[in-house]
Structure formats: structure tokens, C-alpha cells
Design brief:
Chain B: This is Methionine import ATP-binding protein MetN. The structure holds 2 protein chains of 2 kinds. By secondary structure, chain A is an all-alpha fold. Helix content of chain A is 82%, strand content 0%. Chain A is elongated, with a radius of gyration of 20 Å. Chain B is α/β, with parallel strands linked by helices. Chain B contains 11 helices and 14 strands. Chain B has helices at 44-51, 74-81, 99-110, 114-127, 143-154, 173-190, 201-207, 225-229, 235-240, 263-271, 302-311, and strands at residues 2-13, 16-28, 33-38, 59-64, 67-68, 84-88, 161-165, 193-198, 210-215, 218-224, 251-256, 274-285, 288-298, 315-318. In chain B, helix 3 packs across helix 4 (114-127) and helix 10 runs antiparallel to helix 11. The radius of gyration of chain B is 23 Å and the shape is elongated. Classes of the chains: A mainly alpha, B alpha/beta. Chains A and B meet through helix 6 and helix 7 of A and helix 2, strand 6 and helix 3 of B. Bound molecules: adenosine-5'-diphosphate and magnesium ion. Magnesium ion is lined by residues 44-45, 166 of chain B.
Chain lengths: 218, 320
């Protein structure tokens, strides 16, 4: 395959990957962040302890995390149809991607929030701050370096998950590598695809590291 | 200003019960600096955290500035807390905010507008001598500076009461001294009532007017320092004046404020006794000089000499 033949394929596939990753990242944060906060807040000694809710949330998160992505992807097909209207395509892939990544991200959020000292939280309580204020103005800003690091790990995981989404017609770089590189023995394309994936992951990781470090240095 | 009565706090720790406070009564008067002295594990932090109800007492009541906090609902309690400042051993500053941002935090909680907030923050930083550090982050400050930020933050709501949990325990001696004098000045200039807990006698010696000595969740003794010292068997005095264990017949004389009167030479002359000095300590506490002298008194009119000392207002204890 010549470069001229490859480049439109690569461009399209990169666009699809980007689309899947951006949208699923958005929804992952949308669901995973509150879930992570809830895990911390409802825990024993938390801002609003609720052992039952905490246990249930923990269970849900563990369930989501223990399912292999490829299995999850097939298992949620009915749900995908319900939400997106179709089970095939880039947007259809966003549903399993989000379901796979949100519990993962929630745990990382939980870990990051737990790093905030009890002392700091209690100081805010002693000043008369309510729960909302403590979450919004103490926990989240103080945990921001950890949250950014967690988000970075999550995006990298989503890039790798999205490669599997080719199996349900999601397209993207992974799909390209399998269809052309593996099935049609286009080794050059396969190598280029892998290089593009590595570069994207590297870029995301570096950006995440820089932001996290800058936040932590304060 | 602070009234604590019948305070009990029992922690349940994996099925086991830990009695952190076993029935504590405390009365802190307006405008004084009240120290709670005790070793680690005595229950000091628990007591302090019960005063602003960070910890719910198992039993007992707490009133601050005439308001019974233990009777308040959550919203009212939050408002009451805005008028009670607190500083912490490890400062508990927000690392994500600048110095000015940290001091602004309680003002945001109180709903103070942006312009008023900026004005107040500048004023508070001026008060603690950190006006030039407004834009710095806590990580760039020394321990003493961090505690100054903590103090400025605690004063944001114009509190009538300041609670201090080992505020100088993480600081070196010189910095400790500067923080203690800052607290003393705030106490004098703003009429701020301060309840501080510490395991260090020198903090009590340095700035406290009154003290409670705690042990195993109970207050062993409490009151104004000069009165406490003058009380027979005082634990505070025993710690303040570390003298070797007395032998039978030894006389221990404790004096507060009368350090410049020549009582020893007087009894030698008047009662013809021999005075053998075994040890002595002189201290400056709560603004008065106080001391303790351990002597052996022999010969002459020994009993009359002891009575004379008591009449002169000294505490005389004879070891049986
Ligand atoms: N949250 C808690 N759970 C269980 N036990 C506690 C808790 N906080 C304090 N304690 C216990 O209560 C006692 C008093 O602790 P504390 O008030 O911190 O003492 P101090 O401040 O004088 O060192 C200690 O025995 C401590 O182990
Ligand atoms: Mg303590």
C-alpha cells in the first residue's frame, strides 16, 4: 500500500477513534465523577455516611470493573439499541465504552479524594461549611492533581478499549489494524497504525502528566 | 464564654468502647486564655472538638457565647461555627489556594461579597504580618507562616472564641514563641477568648491565664494559674516546679507573687530555726513570678515558723 492509499484510511480511522474517545470520556466523567464522590461521601466517617448505599455502589462499581470489556460490549447491546437506536457504529461504541470506563474512573476518583486530609475537611467543617461547599471547594480542588492523573489513565484505557470497538462496527484505528493489517496482511499499514496509536497515547499521557504536575506544585 | 458540663465521649472502635472523655466540666471566662494540659491520649483533642461539635458528645452540653450548641440543628450549628475560630497542629490549609484564597474561604462560606472579601482578607493578613505573602501558596511558606495564615483564616468571621489544637506543636521553639505572642496580642487587642490544648508546659507558662490538667479523659484540676499553684497537692505545681521526691519532714514552700520578700531570713531571725535548702525553682507564669522551695527546717520554734509562713500567704506543705 502506498502512503497516498493509506493516509485517507488513517485519517478517517483516527477521526473515529477520537470521536469515540472524546464522547466516552465526557460521559465517563459525567457518571464516574459523581459515583466516585458518592463512594467517598457515603463511606463510614464520610460527610454523609450510609453503609447500605456505600455497599451497593461498591458492588456496582466492582461488577463493572470485573467484566472484560469485550464481554461487556456484547452484553450491553440491548441497552445500546435502547439509547442510540442502533448497535453498530462509532456512537454505538460510546455506550459500552462509558459503561466500562466509568466504574474504573470512579475508583480512581475515590482514591484521589481520599488523599485529601481529614484535617483539611474538618477545618472546613469547623468554619461552618456545608457538604456541598466541602465537596466543591475543598475535596475536588484539593484532589485535582490526582483527578487529572486518574483521568489521564482513563483516557489511555479508553483509547485501548476503543480499538476493540471495531468488533461492533465502531471503526477507528484498532479496527483498521485488524481489517487491513491482520486480515489482509498489510504489514506497513499495521505498523503505521500502531505508531499512530502509540503517539496518541504518548501525547495524552504527557499532557496529563504536565497538567497534574503543574497543579501539584502549588 | 465557654461552658462545658458533664461532657462524655465514648468511641466505639471495632466493638470495643473507648472512653475518651469521662465527664468533663469546664468554664472558660470571657477574654482569658485557657489552656488544657495533658499527655497524649488524655482526651484533649476530643474535648476541643466537642466544643465546636466536630465531634458529637455522647452526653453533656456545650455552650459558647451564651448559645447552647448541643441544642442546635445542623444549619444553626453551621452558622454558630462561623463565629468560633479554630487553628490546627498541621495547619490544615488548602494547598490548592493561595494565602489570600485560604483566608477568603471562610468568608465565602459566610456569603461575604467579593469586594468586601478582598478588603477583609487584606486586613487580616496585615494583622498577622503576612501582607506580602497574599499571592503565595502554602507550600512556599514556613511552618510559622502557615500557622499565621491559619490564624488569619480563623479570625475571618470576627469570632469571639478561638480554639487551638496544639497549634505550636509542629513548630521550632523560636517560631512557637512568635506564634504564642501573636495569640497573646490578639487576646489583648481583640478581647479574643482562647481555648488552647497542649502537651507542653511552656505553652501554658507562656500565655495561659487559666489551665485545666487532663488525664485519662478527666479534668484533674482547673482554675486560674496562681490559685491552682497555691492549692495543696496541685499537679500543675508539681509539673511546673520539678523537684526531687521529698523525704519525710521536708518542708515545701510555694509562693506566688511574693518572690521578693525575705521570708527565709525572717524565720531564721524570728524563730531561731536552721534552714537547709534542698532545692528550688522560680518561674514566671500568667504574668506573676511563682516558685517553690524545698527545705529542711530544724531547731528553734519550728512549728511557729511554719505557721508564720502560712500567715504570710505562702503554701506550706510538710511531707509526712
Ligand atoms: N475517632 C476515634 N475513634 C476511636 N478512638 C478515638 C478516636 N479519637 C480519639 N480516640 C481515643 O480517645 C482517646 C483520647 O484521644 P485524644 O482526644 O486525641 O487525646 P489527646 O488529644 O489528648 O492526645 C485516645 O485513647 C484515643 O485513642
Ligand atoms: Mg491531640
Amino acid at each position: 500500500m502506498t502512503w497516498d492509499e493509506m493516509s485517507p484510511l488513517l485519517l478517517e480511522a483516527t477521526g473515529q477513534t477520537a470521536q469515540m474517545v472524546v464522547w466516552s470520556t465526557l460521559f465517563t466523567v459525567l457518571f464516574g465523577l459523581p459515583l466516585g464522590i458518592a463512594l467517598v461521601v457515603t463511606d463510614r466517617g464520610g460527610l454523609l455516611p450510609s453503609p447500605v448505599l456505600n455497599r451497593v455502589l461498591g458492588l456496582v462499581v466492582n461488577l463493572g470493573r470485573s467484566l472484560p470489556f469485550i464481554v461487556l460490549m456484547i452484553a450491553v447491546i440491548p441497552l445500546t439499541r435502547l439509547i442510540v437506536g442502533t448497535t453498530i457504529g462509532t456512537f454505538a461504541a460510546v455506550v459500552p465504552l462509558t459503561l466500562g470506563a466509568a466504574p474504573f474512573f470512579a475508583r480512581l476518583v475515590e482514591t484521589a479524594l481520599r488523599e485529601v486530609g481529614r484535617d483539611t475537611v474538618q477545618a472546613a467543617q469547623a468554619m461552618g461549611a456545608g457538604r456541598g461547599t466541602i465537596i466543591g471547594k475543598v475535596l475536588l480542588p484539593e484532589a485535582m492533581p490526582g483527578l487529572v492523573a486518574g483521568l489521564t489513565v482513563t483516557v489511555v484505557a479508553l483509547i485501548s478499549y476503543s480499538a476493540m470497538a471495531g468488533a461492533i462496527g465502531g471503526g477507528g484505528l484498532g479496527d483498521l489494524a485488524i481489517r487491513y493489517g491482520y486480515q489482509r496482511f498489510e504489514t506497513t499499514l499495521m505498523v503505521v497504525t500502531v505508531v499512530v496509536l502509540v503517539v496518541i497515547v504518548q501525547l495524552v499521557q504527557t499532557l496529563g502528566d504536565v497538567v497534574a504536575r503543574r497543579l501539584a506544585r502549588r | 464564654m465557654i461552658d462545658v458540663s458533664g461532657l462524655r465521649k465514648v468511641y466505639r472502635d471495632r466493638g470495643r468502647e473507648v472512653v475518651a472523655l469521662g465527664g468533663v466540666d469546664l468554664r472558660v471566662r470571657e477574654g482569658e486564655i485557657f489552656g488544657v494540659l495533658g499527655q497524649s491520649g488524655a482526651g484533649k483533642s476530643t474535648l476541643l472538638r466537642c466544643v465546636n461539635l466536630l465531634e458529637r458528645p455522647t452526653e453533656g452540653t456545650v455552650s459558647v457565647a451564651g448559645q447552647e450548641l448541643t441544642a442546635l440543628r445542623e444549619g444553626e450549628l453551621r452558622r454558630a461555627r462561623q463565629r468560633i475560630g479554630m487553628i490546627h497542629q498541621h495547619f490544615a490549609l488548602l494547598s490548592s489556594r493561595t494565602v489570600a484564597g485560604n483566608v477568603a474561604f471562610p468568608l465565602e462560606v459566610m456569603g461575604v461579597g467579593r469586594a468586601e472579601r478582598a478588603r477583609r482578607v487584606a486586613e487580616l493578613l496585615e494583622l498577622v504580618g503576612l501582607a506580602d505573602k497574599a499571592g503565595a501558596h502554602p507550600a512556599q511558606l514556613s511552618g510559622g507562616q502557615k500557622q499565621r495564615v491559619g490564624i488569619a483564616r480563623a479570625l475571618a468571621g470576627n469570632p469571639s472564641v478561638l480554639l487551638s489544637d496544639e497549634a505550636t506543636s509542629a513548630l521550632d521553639p523560636a517560631t512557637t514563641q512568635s506564634i504564642l505572642s501573636l495569640l497573646r496580642n490578639l487576646n489583648r487587642e481583640l478581647g479574643l477568648t482562647i481555648l488552647l490544648i497542649t502537651h507542653e508546659m511552656h505553652v501554658v507558662k507562656g500565655i495561659c491565664d487559666s489551665v485545666a490538667v487532663m488525664r485519662d479523659g478527666l479534668v484533674e484540676e482547673s482554675g486560674a494559674i496562681p490559685e491552682l499553684i497555691a492549692r495543696p497537692g496541685s499537679r500543675l505545681a508539681a509539673e511546673l516546679f520539678p523537684l526531687p521526691r521529698p523525704e519525710a519532714g521536708n518542708v515545701t514552700i510555694t509562693f506566688t507573687g511574693q518572690a521578693d520578700e525575705p521570708v527565709v531570713s525572717e524565720i531564721v531571725r524570728k524563730f531561731d530555726v536552721d534552714v537547709n535548702i534542698l532545692g528550688g525553682v522560680l518561674e514566671e507564669v500568667a504574668g506573676v513570678s511563682a516558685g517553690r522551695l524545698r527545705v529542711r527546717l530544724t531547731g528553734g520554734e519550728r512549728e511557729a515558723a511554719l505557721d508564720y509562713l502560712t500567715e504570710r500567704g505562702l503554701l506550706v506543705e510538710v511531707t509526712p
